[in-house]
Amino acid sequence: MKSITVCLASLFLLSACDFDSREMPGPLVDQPVSIDAGTADRANVELDMRTGELRLSGGASKLLEGTLEYNVARYKPRVTSSINGEHATITVNQPEGAGGTSNWGGKAQNTWDLQLANKTLLDLGINCGAGQAKLNLGDVLLRSLQVHIGVGQVDVDLTGKPAHDYDVTIHGGVGQATVHLPEGVGVYATAHGGIGSISVTGLDKNGDHWQNDLYDRAKVNVRIEVNGGIGEIRLIG
What we know:
Blueprint: H1 2-16, E1 29-35, E2 42-60, E3 64-70, E4 78-84, E5 87-93, E6 110-117, E7 121-136, E8 142-157, E9 166-171, E10 176-180, E11 186-192, E12 197-201, E13 204-206, E14 209-211, E15 221-227, E16 232-236
Parallel strand pairs: 2-5, 2-6, 2-7, 7-8, 8-9, 8-10, 9-15, 10-16, 11-15, 12-16
Antiparallel strand pairs: 1-3, 3-6, 4-5, 11-14, 13-14
C-alpha cells in the first residue's frame, strides 16, 4: 500500500508540473456547445479532457449541449461533429500539449458542463487525464461506455432504468473511480490487470467475476470490465 501511495503522489506531481510557465491564465472564455441530432438515432460521442473538471449528464434537448469554460488559451477544446444518415459522430477534445495543470495559485480553469440527449443510442467514450469527472448517465440510452482514467477522480452514476443491455469498460490509471450500478437489472463484472484495489458491494463473488442474482434472468443486463492501473475502483450495486 505504501508503494502505491508513493507512486500516486509522484505521478500526480509529474502531471502538475506539465504546464507552460510563460502562459498565465486570462479572462474566462465561455464556449457554448449545441449539436442537433438531425436524422441520427444513434451516435458515437468521445470526450477527451486532458486536464480540468468534466460534468456530464442526460436531459439535453439536442444531441449534445452545454458550455466549455477555460481561461488558458491552450486549454481551448476542439468540437467536431458529423451526421451520416441515422448515425452521428461527435468529438470534443483538448489539443496536444494541453495536459497537466498550472501552478498559478489555482487560478487556471477548465470546466466542461455538458448534457446528452436521453433518447439517442450512444457509444460513449470518455478520457479523463488529470482532474475530476462526474458522470450522471442513468437516464442516457447507452449501448457502450468506455472510461479511461488518468490521474484524478471519476464518479460514474448509472442508477436508472435502462431499456436494454449495455457494456461498460473502465481502463484504470492511478486515479480513483466509483461506479454506482443500476438496480433491477442483471450485473456481471470482471477485473483484470494491476489494479491497486477493487471494492465491490451489492454483487456476489463467483469464481473470477462478480454478479448479482438477476444476471441472465433479467430483461436487461449490464456487463462491466475493469482493466488494470494501480488506482482504486469501487463498484456499488
